[in-house]
Amino acid sequence: MGRFSSRRSSKPTFYTGGGAWRRPVDIIYKTQAMKQYGLTEDDLDELTPLSEEVNWRNSRQTVVIYNEAKVKKLAWNIQQQKEIMRSKAQKEYGLSASDLDRLKPCRTQPNPHENARGPTRFYNRADVEALVKELARERDIARAAIAQDQAACKAAAAAAKKVDEEEQYWDAFDDEETLALADSSGLF
């Protein structure tokens, strides 16, 4: 009996020599991995292929074979980097629910915790980062408008204060004695 024979497995084990037993791995060709999992050549360059052979139909091409489990794991990791859950986006980027309502979720799935709260929504991370930049730009514009309004209010207050000072100056000449004195001195 082999080392894995006590487990019930759909895949047989085989002896590789030197006392080692091994289960065969599921393989996937590079082109299949790119189509099936939406990966690019750059993504697959992160993995070490199981084999690279010359294509027997076209000697200028190579056939690259990968471990399918590793390809699945790579695709899942890349997807996790591209997508972000709504609650995680709120925590990481400090967004409110109304901010995220501006975006359309890239996918939804049933909420595993509470069905009453609605589905779990996933957003593209790039869209969330663009939203954060847009909100920051809007805040900067609003702050600049507030600063401009404050400066205009201060200028208006200073002008009003100057007018008040001039009125107080001329109010001193309102009494008849001062006006008569000013008339006799030839000021007016």
Automatic annotation (TrEMBL):
Presence of keyword Nucleus: yes
Keywords, ordered alphabetically: Nucleus, Zinc
Subcellular compartments: Nucleus
Main location: nucleus
CDD domains in alphabetical order: DBD_XPA-like
Keyword Nucleus attached: yes
Protein name: Uncharacterized protein
Originating species: Mycena chlorophos
Taxonomic classification: Eukaryota, Fungi, Dikarya, Basidiomycota, Agaricomycotina
